[in-house]
Amino acid sequence: MSEATPGAAATPRRGRGRRPADQVRAEILTAAGNLLLAQGMAGFTIEKVAAEAGASRMTIYKWWPSRGALALDGYFTVVGPALAFPDTGDIIVDLTDQLTAFVRLMRDTPAGRVISQLIAQAQTDPDLATAYRERYSGPRRALAVEALTRAVARGQLRADIDPESVVDQLWGACYHRLLLPDQPLTEDFARTLIDNLIRGLR
Amino acid sequence: MSEATPGAAATPRRGRGRRPADQVRAEILTAAGNLLLAQGMAGFTIEKVAAEAGASRMTIYKWWPSRGALALDGYFTVVGPALAFPDTGDIIVDLTDQLTAFVRLMRDTPAGRVISQLIAQAQTDPDLATAYRERYSGPRRALAVEALTRAVARGQLRADIDPESVVDQLWGACYHRLLLPDQPLTEDFARTLIDNLIRGLR
């Protein structure tokens, strides 16, 4: 359903009685994430999300300040499960699982193209840049820093490391190959990044 | 001089006799790099470069296949000296010098904004992406890989390292903070990146 079918909002795809707010919110987020992955920011409109989730535009505007904010929250919701941070107690296993899953998501699904275009647009759209930081990259960074901090507490990593810099050397290095594909983005590359950092180059 | 002054190409700023091709080429590259840094891709035209360098558009089209190719070659020419790769014989000193110079260039000059916008545009412009890779990121990667390979030959780094992955964990990590400024891009950050890799996190 699109803006070209004005009756859409009045006749939502799935008729339902009054749903709890949490459920409406969850359905909006899923609809937003799926729409973003299917059509990129170019095809992403509040109207389409509203129609798909059987919610009103007013409800969406009440909860999200902008189209970009809704898109990023939706993206986080939909890719979140694929990017879950395991906690097996072994930081090398956990980093390897997470980073190779991230590489597969970027390389083998529409998420790679979508996220590249979001980062590109954020360079000239300050509102989108803020939404990206507050609703996607900030929370994802926090999950990684948490995992690294747990590993420090368990004595698996040195106590004086700067976890934020490690995020840039693992996920940031992958984003670098995603955006500038001089060299391929592969699971082996992800494993090498971890090995370089854990063992050191000397 | 701009497209709005059609007489510009006929009355170049600096009148000169016939110059050797190498000199014309060098002056075109300098004019292109300076125009790109001053105005970004939005203000970058072959006409302006031709007028500034006192060359004809035909000459420029003979040597460069596209506006993007000229812009990237010009950028490489103008920022090259600031990004020279020293070879003191000590890889840690050399990496630190180069990476902190790169951070200063990105953070303190228009180069940071210009390169962000080039990377952004390359996401939806395949010709610009090719020009970026062939004329900027590829050659810069090669310089770094060369320096790392020299360090391996001198026994300063392990013989089994993958130099390409190290490029992504040093310069790529800086690009990550440039494009997604969740955390600040500083000289201390650059030093931490090197230290993480050289010593290892364990």
From TrEMBL, chains A, B:
It comes from the Bacteria. The keyword Cell membrane does not apply. Residues 22-82 form the HTH tetR-type domain. Residues 1-12 have a biased composition (Low complexity). This is TetR/AcrR family transcriptional regulator. Keywords: DNA-binding, Transcription, Transcription regulation. Residues 1-21 are annotated as: Disordered. Residues 45-64 bind DNA.
